[in-house]
Write a structure and sequence with these properties.
- With 151 residues, the protein is mostly beta strands.
- A hairpin with a 4-residue loop joins strand 8 and strand 9.
């Protein structure tokens, strides 16, 4: 496994490659939004991307002040999860590349793990996944300790 350095999502796309994953794997990272609300995505992709529509598995600090994930045709969440600017959130993606699905969990700093979405469909079909894409349309999001690993 590897751990990638901290990256900041802002008004331009930020891409970091990692070893290709074509089976089931987990990916973890911490994310700290600059404020609430912001509008920032963290996505797993096949190669560097510069558009929302090119992201496969996506978690978001949404512009309404909640955490959600993309499920095939739109954003949703299994639970209502508000976020606070300056607080850290530990994310875990469990990704099934052959099935083109993923499950997302988030753990607020000092809190319990919460399901964001289970068996969500990729937004864009992708195999393998080998890139972390970040973007913030409003505010910034500091993403650290990204670690993909075989599951």
């Amino acid at each position: 496994t590897i751990t990638l350095a901290c990256q900041t999502a802002n008004g331009s796309w930020n891409n970091t490659s990692f070893a290709s994953e074509a089976a089931t794997f987990t990916a973890t990272f911490t994310a700290t939004p600059s404020a609430s609300p912001i509008n920032s995505v963290v996505g797993l992709t096949d190669g560097p991307q510069s558009a929302y529509t090119s992201l496969a598995a996506i978690a978001r600090f949404n512009p309404s002040g909640f955490i959600d994930a993309y499920n095939g045709t739109g954003y949703s969440a299994a639970n209502s999860i508000p976020y606070i600017g300056g607080a850290s959130y530990a994310f875990e993606f469990v990704v099934n590349v052959p099935a083109q699905t993923y499950t997302v969990y988030v753990t607020p700093s000092g809190g319990a793990t919460i399901l964001v979405g289970q068996n969500y469909a990729f937004r864009t079909s992708a195999s393998p996944l080998n890139n972390l894409s970040l973007y913030a349309a409003a505010g910034t999001n500091n993403v650290c300790s990204f670690t993909p690993s075989n599951y």
